[in-house]
Amino acid sequence: MHYSSFTRTMLSIAVPVTLQNLLFSSFTLIDTLMIGALGDTPLAAVGMAGKWTWFFTIVLFGFGSGASVFIAQYFGAGDTRGIHRTYGLLTGGSLFVSAAFMAAALLMPERIIRLFSTDPQAIALGVIYLRVIALGYPFQALARAGGTLLQSTQRVVIPFAGAIASVAVNIVFNALLIFGLCGFPALGVCGAAIASVLAAAVNALVIYGAGWSRRTMLRAPLASLLDIDAPFVREYVRVSAPALLNETVWSMGNLMYSAVFGHMGTGAYAAITVVKSIEDLTSVAFMGLCSSCAVMIGSFIGQGEIARAKDCARRHLALTIGFSVLIGGGVLLLRTPLLSLFGVSSAVRQDAAAVLIIYALEMTLRNIPLILVVGIFRAGGDTRFGLIVDSLSLYLIGLPATGAAGLLLHWSVPATYLVMYLSEDVLKCVVYGLHMRSGRWIRPVTQGGSHE
C-alpha cells in the first residue's frame, strides 16, 4: 500500500473519530471540573457512580466491537444484506443491555455505590447521581449502535456531529443545573446527571436524524434488520461473543481496581477520578487509531487483500508507539497546570501528580495491547486471543497484586497505581506482539476473504 494512500484513508477515519472521542472525554473532564468545585466528596461520589455508567459503556463497546468485525468486512465485500442484519442484531442487543443496566441502577443504586466506598456522605450523593443518569442509558445504546454502523462504513462525520451537539448541551446544562445559573435551581450532582441524560438524548437524535436524511445504511428497511437466520446468529455469536466477553471481563476487573482505591479512602478515589479524566482526554488519539485500523483491516480482509491488511496493522502499531511517546511527554510537562484546574485538596492534588507521572511514563506499554487487540486482532476476526490473555493477566496477576499493595500492605496511591499497570502490561505486550507476528489473527468472516 502506497504511504500517501494509507495516510489519506487513515486520517479520513481517525481524525473525526479522534475529535469525537476528544469531545466525549472533555464531557468527563468538564463534569469533573465543575463537580470538583463542590468539594472532594461530591467529586468522589460522582466518580463512583460514574463507574457503573462506564461499565455499561464498555459492555456497549464490546457489542459494537464484535459487530464492527462483520460490518467492516461486509462493507469491503459489498455485502449490504450482511451489514443490515448485523446492525439489527447489534441494536437489539444494545437496547437489551441498556434496559438491564438501567433497572439495576434504579432498583439497587446504594448496593452498587457501596462496592466502591463506605463513606456515608459519598454513598448518598452517588445514589442521587446514579438514579438520574441511568435514564439516559437507552439513548446511549442507540447512539453507540448507530455510530458503530456509520464508522464501520466510513461515514464518520455524522457521529462527530452528534458528539459536538451532545457536549454543547452538557456544558450549558451543567452550568445551569449544578450551580443554579440564570434562575435555574442549584441541584449539584443531580444537576450534572440531568445534563448528561439530555446530552445523551441529543446525541442519539443527531445521529439518527442525520443518518436518515443523508440516506446512510441507517435507513435499512425493518425487514432487512430482521433478516436473521440461525446459521448467521451462530456465526455472529462465535465471533462477537468473545469480544463482548473480553470487554465485560476487563471492565469488571477495572471496577474491582476502582473498589481497591475506593476502600483506600475518599481522598484516594478523588485523586484517581482526577487522573482518569485526564487519561480519557489523552487516550482519544489511540481510540481514533483503533477505529481507522479496524475499518481498514476489515475492509482489506473483506476484499481478500491479506498482505495489505498486515501492512496496515504494522503501520498502525508504529503510529501508536510514536504517539504514546509524544503524548506521554506532553503529560509530563503539563501535569502541574493541568492539575491546577481542579478544585481539590492539596493532598489529593499531590497524589494525582505522582500518578500522572506514572501514567505518562507507562503510556506506551498500555497502548500497545490496546491497538493490537481492539484495532488489529478483532478486525482480523480473532476475538478469542485477547479474551484469554486479558482475563488471565487481569484476574491472576493484576488484581491480586494491586489488592495486596493497596489493602494489605497499605502502600500509597501512586505505588498501588504503579503495581496495577506494570503487573499486566509488560506481559501483554510480549504475548500480543508474538501473536501479531504469527499472522494467526487473520480469520475472515466473509466468503471473499482468505488466507494467503
Task: Using brief descriptors, characterize the structure shown.
mainly alpha, globular, single chain, disordered C terminus, 452 residues, 16 helices
Q: Can you describe this structure?
A:
The protein is mainly alpha-helical and about 450 residues long. Helix 2 runs antiparallel to helix 10 and helix 2 runs parallel beside helix 12. The chain is globular and about 55 Å long. The chain starts with a helix and ends in a 14-residue tail after the last helix. About 55% of the residues are buried.
Mean pLDDT: 87
Proportion of beta-strand residues: under 5%
Helix content: over 70%
Structural class: mainly alpha
Cα distance spanning the termini: 16 Å
Following the backbone from N to C, one meets helices and strands in this order, namely HHHHHHHHHHHHHHHH
Give the helix/strand layout.
Elements: H1 3-36, H2 40-77, H3 80-107, H4 109-113, H5 120-133, H6 137-152, H7 157-179, H8 189-213, H9 222-225, H10 230-263, H11 266-282, H12 284-302, H13 306-339, H14 346-377, H15 384-408, H16 413-438
Helix pairs in contact: 1-7, 1-11, 1-12, 2-3, 2-5, 2-6, 2-10, 2-11, 2-12, 3-6, 5-8, 6-8, 7-8, 10-11, 10-15, 11-14, 12-13, 12-14, 13-14, 14-16, 15-16
Give a brief rundown of this model.
This protein has 452 residues and is mostly helical.
